[in-house]
Design a protein that fits this description.
Shape: elongated
Largest sheet: 5 strands, antiparallel
Helix content: 55-70%
Strand content: 5-15%
Number of strands: 5
Order of helices and strands: HEHEHEEE
Distance between the termini: 81 Å
Strand order of the largest sheet: 1-2-3-4-5
Number of helices: 3
Oligomer: single chain
Structural class: alpha+beta
Length: 151
């Protein structure tokens, strides 16, 4: 009779232990997923700033050497539609700061020319205002617009 009581207590303890482990695993997985999202957002913002620094550096160099700047001129209507889409998806209220003929789209080959090797996104930039827009990703999962300008 004592033997049955011990088995019952052991089974209850085992079930409670498993439930506690499942709860801890759920908390850990949630934390890891949240951490990954924050890392991806930080990475996207860092990429944006890296492109901005590269284009401002190239603009300064081009002012001295009179070389042409990489990129293809963008359609301003398409650019306005992109800005409207970003404003809708995020809480930002982006207003373009430059003239419509000053915006250029940078492909991966243009980015390589700026010294950025491992970037797969396409960016729209304005060399004069330092504006950079991530055309591919547009906003982060948290709803932050991937747009910056030289202040």
């Amino acid at each position: 009779m004592n033997l049955r009581k011990n088995k019952g207590i052991t089974m209850v303890a085992l079930v409670i232990t498993i439930i506690i482990l499942l709860i801890l695993a759920g908390i850990s997985v949630t934390g890891v997923i949240r951490g990954i999202d924050e890392t991806n957002e930080s990475s996207a913002i860092s990429q944006l700033e890296m492109v901005q620094h590269a284009l401002l550096e190239r603009k300064t160099k081009a002012d001295l050497t009179k070389e042409t700047l990489p990129g293809t001129t963008t359609d301003y209507t398409e650019l306005q539609n992109l800005i409207n889409e970003i404003n809708t998806k995020s809480s930002a209220n982006i207003t373009l700061r430059g003239n419509k003929e000053d915006y250029k789209e940078l492909s991966t080959s243009d980015l390589k020319e700026l010294g950025i090797e491992k970037e797969t996104n396409t960016f729209i930039v304005n060399y004069k205002t330092g504006e950079v827009i991530n055309k591919t990703q547009k906003v982060t999962k948290a709803g932050r617009a991937l747009y910056t300008y030289a202040k």
